[in-house]
Amino acid sequence: MSRTVTEKTKQHPIxxxxxxxxxxxxKFMLLICGLKLGWDVLQVQYLWLFVLGILYPHITYWxxxxxxxxxxxxxxxxxxxxxxxxxxxxxxxxxxxxxxxTIVLIANALYIGAFRLLLKNMxxxxxxxxxxxxxVWPFTGFVQTDWPVKIVNTLFILIHxxxxxxxxxxxxxxxxxxTKEVQSLSIxxxxxGAYNRRYLDANLSKEIHRSQxxxxxxxxIFTDLDHFKSVNDEYGHQLGDKVxxxxxxxxxxxxxxxxxxxxxxxxxxFIAVLPNADADYGALIAERIRQEVSEHLFEFEDKQVSISSxxxxxxxxxxxxxxxxxxVIASAEKLIATADDGLYKAKEKGRNRVEVVNLHAQESI
Length: 365
Fold this sequence. Notes:
The protein is of the alpha+beta class. The chain has helices spanning 2-9, 13-37, 47-66, 70-91, 95-135, 137-140, 147-187, 197-214, 228-235, 237-254, 279-295, 325-328, 332-348; strands spanning 218-225, 261-266, 269-275, 298-300, 303-305, 309-316, 354-356.
């Protein structure tokens, strides 16, 4: 059971991409052969056409799916596609069918494997055509294309390329979704769902510069869960992880959606960034989070714990004309350090409180 799942997981995408178009091509090829040959198609020498039209797509899919190197096997299948197409054209000396088969083979090879695969496919195709030119066509010559064959050829081209267009659309959508997922994972803390330190380092400076450019305030809240280490030591890391995740959920409910954001700074420390918010608003938000956390009962299985949190709040007010130039152009590092000073004061004063730090008064700024 596990082996089957593993094999399916490792299956190369081009195996599935080629499967449906190959079925369509095989069925249309059989239909065209029937139109051109009439009842003669039932003769023994044409039995291979039925195998090709009915079983061949499933055989090639099975071979590629079971192969250790599915991509290489599928490329071999495509070479065999080209050779068998050439053999089919050799018994149907029809210019319309020949041009249709050639266009489809070239487009398919370019879509899947670019020029290297195209050269290999065309070599296999040419091998069959050379055989036809030497041993078949001199005796049969090319016949005029009947209108039913033209209609079927046209339908085949439309359906075949339409199928590839639809497959391309869904593959592109899936690729975009996966790209977004990877980008999200690269900037998200997997435990809490908050942004990670990488996102904080990359975006806090941008938020500060934007606030300066648009002339609005920005507030940073540095928060820490009080005595969190004792929760891990006494109740285990599973409950500790639940506390961190629940804390972020609580904090998100207290800040503005799609405006403010929260990042995990490290361990049980978090930073909330509030664009277009002054220190008073930041203190209000911090107090709201503090109260919600202190009233919340954190639970995991049969374990329960209550915990408090401390906050340091600092703001850059770009509208404050009394602020020094150094304050206005404060870097992200200085802003975080100042908020950390506020957090330290909150801890010194007994924890479970909010301390607002005046950026102007900080000597480091």
